[in-house]
Design brief:
Elements: H1 13-26, E1 32-36, H2 50-58, E2 65-69, H3 75-81, H4 84-87, H5 100-121, H6 131-141, H7 145-155, H8 162-172, H9 179-195, H10 200-215, E3 220-221, H11 222-229, H12 235-242, E4 247-248, E5 256-259, H13 263-268, H14 283-301, H15 321-328, H16 331-345, H17 354-378, H18 383-413
Parallel strand pairs: 1-2
Antiparallel strand pairs: 3-5, 4-5
Amino acid sequence: MIKSDPEVAYESLYNQMHKLIVQPLKQPGISTVIIIDALDECEDEGPASVILSVLGRLVSEIPKVKFFLTGRPEPRVYEGFRLPLLAKMTDTFVLHDVEQHRVDSDIRLFFRTSFSELASRRSGLDNWPAEEQLDSLCERAAGLFIYAAATVRFVDDHQRDPRSQLDLLLQSQKIGAREGETLDTLYTSILQEAFGDNDPEDDARARAVLGAVVLAVNPLSSSTIAALLGYDAEDIPHLLLLAKSLLVLQEDASHPVRPFHKSFPDFITDSDRCTDKRFFISAPDHNLQLVTGCLDLTNRTLVKNMCDLPDGVANSDVGDLMERVEECIDPALQYASLWWHVHLADADTTPAHTPTITPTLRQFLGKKFLFWLEVLSVLDAVKNAVEALQVITGWLEVCRASMLNTLSAFTHRI
């Protein structure tokens, strides 16, 4: 469907669901279940979830399909399920209504099973952990499976003694009074243990790398992170390995790196939660660093006709276009070309930081603009250029207003 109608990606949610979900499933009468996980994480400004609103209008057209949706009971999600078209055909299961002792029992079983598997792979772990340690872990987990999963990942370090790893967590953590505090304490302990007493330069590099991981539009490989930040490619895997219990890593440096769970980016970008300033990721500052890195890379490497296409040929007439793209445009340049404007939109626009980006942006628009359009064309993402120009316009207006306010305040003081 997407190949036959590429513009569907830019149509309304109603048209997308009708064309991509309803029509394909309605015609053959397939009986299936569609799972939509973490509905609350969708960006949505409406009073009720737009996805739920559209789903309510169309779900009756595919009667053999059931939807299983999960999400926190945020107001727009709650209101979405109360919409008349959806409410009458929806069954709700509130996870928080499950008895606490049943949740604790499940988490305890997970801990016991995971540590038993770990002990079978390592020697000297008989009768470990002790029952009182399991009691303490379950109490600290406070019903949160993600706490249990992150704890097991931290303890199961091939280069360290699991008993010492578990003791470190139990000694350094207090029992949180609420869900966020429980995870915050765990993540802080893991980061402090991972990076130890590094000097300020190492802290800045660690923040830059973790910032690229949690703020990237799509997951980046360690080699791409190095190219965007201007670091040696050999340095990045080591830094990522230090925090491996919080990330999803592959041995191949070309594989993307992702946070293990969304709660980690939420924690490390919130100054009220990540109180150890060695690790706090200021989104405006790090987006400024990323957009600067993206534009520096495009200014250095973009050239005319990067894929060496014949003059006047249409992309559709180039049979090996994708092979040429992969060979001639490396992943870092692809990312920089596609998404620099997203980081610009979220970057720090205060007068003190504007000079950091303005010369680089001027060089890009003056000397690399047409080459950039060519790259977007072969990446089938020309619409990104429209979005980028809109971002530039808005960014310049914000910078101008900010500078005028600063000048006005200065004049008033004089």
